[in-house]
Write a structure and sequence with these properties.
Elements lengths: L4 E5 L6 H12 L2 E3 L9 H6 L1 H28 L4 E3 L5 H9 L2 H15 L7 E6 L2 H11 L9 H21 L5 E5 L9 H19 L2
Helix pairs in contact: 3-4, 3-5, 4-5, 4-7
Length: 210
């Protein structure tokens, strides 16, 4: 795949969608946004994770599979794409919330569905402190997120960091850009945003020279 396909990833509330929109506008890329609000199980999930995790994760997997299938048509038309998620996040959440027997079944379905999916050729990993993440979750005021606990978010952040390290090892050809959400405010600070866009542009230029 020759066209840039960038995915922005990180824990809940870190600013993935905001940064993806900014990249889309700056580089005139097609924007792919994950479906969250339409998941009918999400509110129940945060109330009782053990009871509703399998239904929640299967809904996300099926919807993301459909979205990425459609993205193939965009890339085939030689139009670049930036997404506010990478489908690998499904495994991060599923491994943490599903029972071992459920996860085994889930992983088998995941591997079948994602076998021929388009893979990004750049990943931007946004991370931030637990306090910052909880603050942003509270500020955006989503009803289904009101029951997210600090313990859950702390573990999720650790899971993300471990997974990104593993991702870099198995995909050494896909550059990962690390961005500190505590040090950078790309929403309110134009200089921070321009610095991020400069890093992305440089990485894209390096890729085109290979």
């Amino acid at each position: 795949m020759s066209e840039p396909f960038i995915t922005v990833e990180g824990p809940i509330g870190v600013g993935k969608t905001s940064l993806s929109k900014a990249i889309s506008e700056a580089f005139k890329y097609h924007l792919l946004k994950e479906i969250v609000d339409e998941n009918p199980f999400l509110g129940k999930f945060y109330e009782d994770i053990d009871e509703w995790s399998f239904q929640t994760e299967m809904f996300f997997l099926c919807n993301r599979y459909k979205q990425l299938s459609d993205i193939n048509h965009i890339l085939d038309k030689q139009r670049s794409v930036v997404a506010d998620y990478h489908i690998f996040k499904n495994l991060i959440f599923a491994k943490r919330t599903l029972k071992p027997v459920e996860y085994e079944k889930y992983e088998a379905i995941y591997n079948i569905l994602t076998k021929d999916m388009p893979k990004p050729n750049m990943v931007i990993y946004l991370h931030a402190s637990l306090d910052k993440l909880m603050e942003r979750i509270t500020m955006r005021g989503r009803e289904f997120e009101k029951n997210i606990s600090r313990d859950y978010m702390e573990q999720l952040s650790k899971d993300y960091h471990e997974f990104i390290g593993h991702f870099e090892k198995i995909h050494p050809d896909i550059p990962v850009i690390y961005l500190d959400g505590d040090a950078l405010d790309f929403v309110k600070n134009e200089e921070d945003l321009q610095n991020i866009l400069k890093i992305i542009k440089e990485k894209l230029q390096q890729r085109s020279l290979r």
